[in-house]
Design brief:
This protein has about 260 residues and is mainly α. It has nine helices and no strands. It has helices at about 15-40, 40-55, 70-100, 105-145, 155-170, 175-185, 190-195, 195-210, 215-250. Helix 2 crosses helix 3. The longest helix has about 40 residues, at about 105-145.
Length: about 260
């Protein structure tokens, strides 16, 4: 049986809505379970997050709070984000379980590894920003501070800055997944992706300039990995494209009948 004639499970609108409600409820429960221990250790998590900046401040200097509630709300917001990150694999699994019945076998075969890769690359981008980019950025900002100015970072502003970089680098590290999807869905050919490398390099630096603080160090720290990941995406797409015809020929029901 060809993929075009492959029967897909059907259901009523009510059944889909009920399943969607069930999946969303499971997601909220999972995030809540992950959030509770993070909320208990929220101050310790915030101390960990602020370490790259505090370690480069003058001795004895710490972050400040410009509002009374900031010392409570900032760590609590961070705990919620941490809970979401911890529960993210389960959240994406629930989303996958909801949409999987409507996919063909070939789509499922590629969707699972791409989904796993997307999760791992996002975590890798977050880790890269914390352990590599943060020290570079804060060293640059502190080194360029005028002598008559004392750098005093507010906890809420710092949290927003850190989360923005986390999201920016997490999304930027999804470049290989985006490239592979473009090729596998036949939206863009491999030849086209290879021929526009020069333009992609320019676009990558422009995107990095928009997403990162206005300094050369952080922009380069994002642009270089993004371009390398773009090249990696082309390589993996070429490998998958070569293996697809053979896989389809060996699929059940695709061979010639005798």
């Amino acid at each position: 049986m060809s993929e075009d004639n492959e029967p897909l499970p059907e259901g009523t609108l009510i059944s889909h809505l009920l399943e969607l409600r069930s999946r969303l409820l499971r997601i909220m429960i999972a995030v809540l379970i992950a959030f509770l221990p993070c909320a208990y250790y929220s101050n310790a998590i915030f101390d960990w997050l602020s370490t790259p900046l505090v370690a480069r401040l003058p001795p004895g200097q710490k972050l400040i709070a410009t509002t009374v509630t900031a010392t409570f709300t900032a760590p609590l917001k961070l705990a919620l984000v941490a809970g979401l990150l911890i529960a993210m694999p389960y959240v994406l699994y629930q989303i996958w379980a909801f949409v999987a019945p409507g996919l063909y076998r070939r789509e499922k075969r590629f969707a699972v590894p791409l989904l796993v890769s997307a999760i791992l690359l996002f975590y890798l981008g977050v880790g890269f920003s914390y352990w590599f980019v943060f020290p570079l950025v804060f060293r640059f900002f502190i080194a360029t501070t005028p002598h008559n100015v004392q750098l005093m970072a507010d906890v809420s502003n710092y949290l927003q800055f850190a989360l923005t970089l986390f999201v920016a680098f997490g999304v930027a590290f999804e470049t290989p997944v985006a490239v592979v999807l473009l090729v596998l869905t036949n939206l863009v050919s491999l030849q086209k992706l290879r021929s526009v490398r020069g333009y992609v390099l320019i676009v990558v630096f422009i995107v990095a300039a928009i997403l990162t603080p206005p300094d050369v160090m952080s922009q380069t720290a994002m642009a270089v990995p993004m371009y390398l990941l773009y090249e990696g995406g082309i390589l993996f797409a070429a490998i998958l494209q070569k293996s697809t015809p053979a896989a389809e020929e060996n699929a059940p029901g695709q061979g010639s009948s005798t």
